[in-house]
Design the sequence.
């Protein structure tokens, strides 16, 4: 009883903290207040400690690693996002704006687990024999870590596309104004294609706002590539360990279960993304579109299949 009460306290404290941290990082995108982002980083560390305490507490009174149902997997996913955030804070102190992506990821997954799932779904139960395996712990933990990194990398690509569309629209409007002004002053109504291209470049080069956005696009593209590369590796390890576990539990390495099918689709999408980056040399918009598609695919694989209650991997809405 004490453990359950402590778990509930830690869950509400950590959710309140991550909500405040998310608002802080969103505020840094609008207001450049000294020390605001650093306070967000400290808040994320406290959130990480509370979530860690929650998972350890649940581990102690349940007797197994807290990865056995949808609630526990969401809490572990939120914890993974906070770990990713802290690592990024340490390695990229100049890119604290990344917290505007990682903090909401941790907040939304934590909020869905705490507020969105019914109480029956949040209770810890006994493990079925198929889950009582060391391969189960390795498989599920690697897959959830891969979800966290792939989702954050995909969100960075989505942000890249949004910013890029804004930059392109502003450049086009600026170039049209420039062309119109020159047409009135010189009575020239026609410009060659090369002249129009030079006008576009001129407008872009001398726009300090668009220059900063261009730098941000480059950082988002680079960070998305690194995050997805890590997530792809973790997903591969998780899928291979899952195949070994499936053979141990069900006598087959691959049975085309819905979760397995969507795992293959997810792996293929992000393999295409990495292929276009490494072999084709694509950067910016094209691979970002592929990564944005992967964002939806990951959620279908993780949540959609579970809530439909289909297959061996599913966790129903009302039953752990």
Sequence:
């Amino acid at each position: 009883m004490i453990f359950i009460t402590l778990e509930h306290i830690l869950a509400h404290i950590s959710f309140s903290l991550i909500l405040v941290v998310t608002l802080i990082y969103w505020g840094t995108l609008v207001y450049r207040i000294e020390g605001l982002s650093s306070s967000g980083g400290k808040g994320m560390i406290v959130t990480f400690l509370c979530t860690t305490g929650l998972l350890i507490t649940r581990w102690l009174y349940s007797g197994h690693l807290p990865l056995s149902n949808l609630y526990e997997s969401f809490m572990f996913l939120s914890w993974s996002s906070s770990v990713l955030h802290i690592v990024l804070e340490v390695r990229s102190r100049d890119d604290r704006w990344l917290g505007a992506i990682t903090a909401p990821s941790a907040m939304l997954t934590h909020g869905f687990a705490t507020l969105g799932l019914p109480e029956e779904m949040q209770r810890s139960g006994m493990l079925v024999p198929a889950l009582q395996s060391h391969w189960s712990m390795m498989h599920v933990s690697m897959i959830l870590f891969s979800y966290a990194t792939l989702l954050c990398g995909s969100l960075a690509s989505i942000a890249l596309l949004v910013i890029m569309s804004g930059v392109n629209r502003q450049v086009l409007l600026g170039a049209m104004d420039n062309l119109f002004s020159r047409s009135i002053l010189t009575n020239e109504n026609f410009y060659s294609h090369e002249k129009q291209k030079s006008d576009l470049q001129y407008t872009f080069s001398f726009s300090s706002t668009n220059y900063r956005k261009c730098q941000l696009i480059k950082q988002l593209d680079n960070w998305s590539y690194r995050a997805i590369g890590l997530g792809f590796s973790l997903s591969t390890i998780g899928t291979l360990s899952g195949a070994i576990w499936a053979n141990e539990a069900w006598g087959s390495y691959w049975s085309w279960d819905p979760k397995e099918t969507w795992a293959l689709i997810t792996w293929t999408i992000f393999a295409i993304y990495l292929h276009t980056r490494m072999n084709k040399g694509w950067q910016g918009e094209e691979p970002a579109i592929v990564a944005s598609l992967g964002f939806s695919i990951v959620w279908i694989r993780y949540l959609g299949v579970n809530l439909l209650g289909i297959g061996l991997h599913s966790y129903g809405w009302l039953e752990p």
User: Anything to note?
Assistant: Residues 127-183+206-319 form one domain.
